[in-house]
Design goal:
The protein is built from ten helices and no strands. By secondary structure, the protein is mostly helical.
Amino acid sequence: MPQTFAQLAASPALGISVWVLAALVVAAFVAGWVDSVVGGGGLIQLPALVIALPSDATTPEVLGTNKLSSVAGTFVATLTYLRKIRVPVAMVAPLIAAAFAGSAAGSSIARFIPKELLTPIVLVAVIVVGAYTWLKPNLGRTHEERYVGWSRAWLSALIGLVVGFYDGILGPGTGSFFVIAIVAFLGFGFLQGTVAAKLANLTTNIASILVFGLHGELLWMIGGCMAVANLAGGFIGARMAMRHGNEFIRRVFLLVITILAARLAWDTVSMWV
């Protein structure tokens, strides 16, 4: 007898109910929108997966499925941006090459590093980034590149390597870290920086999927359902960001950073209480 959707969603193939799957799809849509505008969609999607997936789901399965969903929204957002906005190939090439290497390395050792050691470090970084952006109201409102040639290439590669490594190990806030690094260190506007960040984040997602996939640590059916919603959110968010420009992105960025800091602070306190 053919299975209903509810029966299929509650079957061992998924391991969750249809209502939990629906909640994950909604979370994926919102995460796709946030991620396409300024990054940080993992702040929404990753905790949702941690809560919703069965208790026997491993950490690499949670991280890998998160990447499987995220890559769809990041891909469509990247294409949407590139139709209207161009970024220098000489800057993007070393950025994405280093981001791929960093993410692959981080994903490879993610299962061996206790996440609780990383959370306080990331919390400090998020607070510093948020304070820096808040205290510099003109940051990212105009596009004035500061470096050319090898200086820009090496700095871009360093950004890609460091942020990519973090994305492979943990992930939430990666897009935001890419954006602020590109804006603060390279002089890009928020809109142009977001485009470059999308290309780098797409690369880190692909690298992680390859690593987790080779180890059989992807929940394909759940990740596939979430990917469709993430793609829709990414498309809508990218179009809104291009319509409203740098100031809109800056405001969303500060909001996401505030929420991310609150979440990390809660996680940090929970570890010690």
